[in-house]
Amino acid sequence: MRPILTLLALLAAAPFLCAGEIYVSPGGDDAATGTAEAPVATLEKAAALLPKGGTAILQPGIYRERATLTGEADAPPLRLRAAGEGVIFDGGERLAGWEPVGKNLYATPLPASVQETRANLHLWDRKRLLRLTRLADEAAVRAISGSFVLRADGTLLVHLAEGEKPEGLTCNRASKGIVIQRPRVTLEGISLRNYLFDGYSAAVAIGPVQEIGILSCQFDNVRDAVSISPGASQIEIRDCDIRFAGTAINNRGNDITLTDNVFEAASGAFAMRELLPVIHCAIRIYHPAHGFTVSGNVTKGYQYGLRIKTDVSPSEGDARVIIEHNTFADGVSLTPEVITLFRPEHRFSANILAVGAEEGALVRTLREHGATVETNYLYPADTDAPASMEPPGGRNESGAHPFPRFAEGDLEPTVELPKDAEGKPAGAARTRIAWANAAAPAKEETAPLPSLRAPKREGEAPLTLHVRPGASAEAADGSTEHPYPYLQAALDHALPGDTVLLAPGIYPHPATLTRSGKEGAPITIRGAGATATILEGARQSADLLTLRDVEHVVVKGIQFRWFREAGLRLESTAFVRVSECTFLNGGLDIRGETPTGYGIFGSRSRGLTITGCLLARNRVGIKLVKCPGVVIEQNTGFRNLNTALELVQSSKGSTLRRNSFGYSSHAAIYLWEPQPAAFRSLRCDENNYAMRLYHYLIHSGGKPPDPDVVLEVPARYGSVAGGKAIIDILDTSDATAPRTRYGRFEEWQKASGKDQHSTYADPQYADPVRGDFRLLPGSPNLLPDGTFVGAFGPLPER
Fold first, then answer.
1. What does the alpha-carbon distance between residue 283 and residue 253 come to, in Å, rounded to a whole number?
2. How many CB atoms lie within 10 A of CB 770?
3. What CA–CA distance (Å, rounded) separates 69 from 178?
4. SS3 call for 262
5. Which end of the chain is more exposed for a tag (fewer CB within 10 A), N or C?
6. How far apart are CA 302 and CA 155, in angstroms?
7. By C-alpha distance, which of 2, 91, 93, 79 is closest to 43?
8. Which of 468, 488, 469 is nearest to 480 (CA)?
9. Residues 136/561, Cβ–Cβ less than 8 Å
């Protein structure tokens, strides 16, 4: 009987298979026929009922499916059209069941529907434009408002500001809304929101297919609005409004047209603070993309309205580059390599853009390289600076800001703009941002910490100044009985020979030391260990500890975490020693975050020693600029974005020894040293540079890594991205020159003469996702003499 029933079902459905229209509704039923009166429930079912192509008409409502549309290369056109306003694909879920568990603290179980996203969780209140910061543990959340953590028992704990309630909090449930894996698909009039997940999420993800249109759609609160993969081509995105995206259009495809769209990024408490500038773009065009038109778009609030990093002059295929009549009310970035590839047929014309040093140089440099650059209007971000017009006939100076109602989202210019050959003024035709961001609350200004009373001293004997978070400030003098409640109070009074002793706990206030120790009597800032004493940035503080114009300082036994720029900043210091510290700028068990900041950033600091430190999940573990004579010994770097170590003009007399630096996303170390003699004096040996490499031939200019040198990464290491090289070298004063990237360790040893006793092998960490970087038996980091490479020794035998 089953074959007969199946045949009857097909016959019953036959009139609709050829009809060309199928109706979809969130309240529909996939067993229905797809009429307006009996709609199906999902896009996937609608597509299946249109094998000869046609239109899926979406009725208003909230769609919570992840729709994946597949088909062969000859699949017929498929149109997905909203039947009116209110067709919304939503990847978020409202949280309920909150219970108070302390002052301004609330908890609720994580819904079962969100369990799959627990490692990539985001929380926000869309109505109040508030985005909570995920912190490392419960102790940090209890100390800092506007934060949350997912506890081990599966409950969410949030800390809100005084008077706020958690009723409006929402979390992400899905990473993608509509995935297009078939050609000739058009989306029209659809809204997509709340797809915050990880670096691979997107409200609309387009695979390697052709002829895709996204027309008159809205995107709100998404990591990527539209992600276009390599191999995609003939993509048009037109008349869309995109608000609060990390990257609005993330394009790596070919033959792309972006026309008359509006892009607005979030500010204030709803901004996505963890994004790198190169990612926070309205339009991001990256390798291997080629052939694109960007016309009539408006961008506001991004780090870059447009960023291009791809070969714009391929020998084969579409080499079209047209950038015209856009209003970029934020930065524009073209990498130096890209600028040199522009040709006369490439157009950068009739745009309005804010001028920083980069943008001003961009326009001049494009013209110098022969591109067609005409009738752009450049204005300063600083309204006190002169604006400039660049009509074909010359340059006029004016002090007027073109957008007096910029803050309200009104980009209607009030100045005379240059006109192109057709008499059309520079900039986009759309001048009003539909969803003005003026309502976003500004970040509350934190009152400066008061200086507390000086400690009691007897003569010149050095003191131990005690600090304990939560201590009373009323009688605080740094004594055991009356410790200071925050680090800055102790640094205000520390003298040569003193020790600032930090008790276990969370320290949420950044601090600066400007007083020196002496040789033999340093100022020591010591914690109770890097798992107990924690300087917490909560993604809000730029730098956690700054040492400025000081000498002879010791920093020991402290964890620096979740800062925006640097955990430890060294400016014009000498003879500073940093030991047994951890610099951790993201969760080792959290996927999808883009690591930001520098664990240690040093400039013009000599005689620096860094030993026994862990540097993980930073943009760069250690970056030193003009810091000769540095000793970097027995440290561990793991899963940093760019590199574990960058030395910029800091090789002279420096030593890199017994470090375990690896598993970064660019290289293990990066050296920029224009002086050959300084580079030759760098001592570098007994290190381990374990990396997971990937084919980076297009940028490296050399051979891809051999399969036998591509390390397998154990699952216990978590999500380890592929790197571009083991060692990255720039040996010229020209910052735009191509780097020399070594994808084979033996080539680096032969070319440099360094690292003759170093290794390129899995260090066999015990359990790094849980913070255990001790070495398993048999690790190549365990040396025959009983010593070890890296910051941590062997795992004790049981």
1. 13
2. 11
3. 8
4. strand
5. C
6. 34
7. 79
8. 468
9. yes
3-state secondary structure of 645: strand
Supply φ then ψ for residue 772, to 5 degrees.
-100, 105
Please count the helices (runs of H) and the strands (runs of E) in the chain: 9, 65
CA dist., res. 331 & res. 427, Å (int): 15
Round to whole Å and give the CA distance between 161 and 148: 12
Helix%, strand%, coil% for the chain, nearest 5: 10, 35, 50
What amino acid is encoded at 125 in this protein? D
Handedness of CA 419, 421, 424, 430 (dihedral sign): negative
Cα–Cα distance measured from residue 228 to residue 528, given in angstroms and rounded to the nearest whole number? 49
Choose among 730, 733, 732: nearest CA to 742.
730
Class of residue 127 by CB neighbours under 10 A (exposed 0-12, middle 13-18, buried 19+)? exposed
Angle ∠(693,698,704) on CA atoms, nearest 5:
40
Per-residue confidence band for 63, with pLDDT thresholds at 50, 70 and 90: very high
Token pair 């900041």 is at which residue?
A: 597
DSSP string, 682-738: -EEES-B----B---HHHHSSPPPPGGGSPPPPGGG--PPPBS-SEEEE-SS-TTSP
What is the predicted pLDDT for the residue at 355? 67
Report the distance separating Cα 658 and Cα 775, nearest Å. 14
Q: What is the Cα Rg of the chain in Å?
A: 29
DSSP code for 432: B
Cβ–Cβ < 8 Å for 310, 287:
yes
Three-state DSSP state, 438: coil
Chain-centre distance of CA 779, in angstroms?
33
- Three-state secondary structure call for residue 533: strand
3-state SS class at 746 = helix
Cα(630)–Cα(649) distance, integer angstroms: 11
Contact 767, 716 (CB under 8 A): yes
Nearest to 560 by CA among 543, 588, 580, 584: 584
The amino acid sitting at 457 is R
Phi, psi angles (nearest 5°) of residue 3:
-60, -40
Residue 117 — φ and ψ, nearest 5°? -105, 15
- Confidence band (pLDDT; 50, 70, 90) for 699? very low
Contact 788, 765 (CB under 8 A): no
* pTM summary value: 0.83
pLDDT tens for residues 479-533?
Answer: 999 999 999 999 999 999 999 999 999 999 999 999 999 999 999 999 999 999 9
For residue 497, the 8-state DSSP code is: T
Contact predicate 630/650, CB 8 Å: yes
Which structure tokens are listed for 141?
Answer: 């959340």
194 token code pair: 């709340």
Structural contact between residues 770 and 757, judged by C-beta atoms closer than 8 angstroms = no
Q: What is the mean pLDDT of residues 346-350?
A: 89
- Is 632 within 8 Å of 658 (Cβ atoms)? no
> How far is C-alpha 468 from the geometric centre of its chain's CA atoms?
33
Listed in sequence order, the residues at least 6 apart from 361 whose beta carbon sits closer than 8 Å to its beta carbon are none
- State the CB neighbour count (10 A cutoff) for residue 291: 19
Q: Which of 221, 254, 232, 249 is nearest to 185 (CA)?
A: 232
Question: How far apart (Å, rounded) are the C-alpha atoms in residues 562 and 508?
Answer: 10
Q: Name beta bridge partners: 81.
A: 57, 188
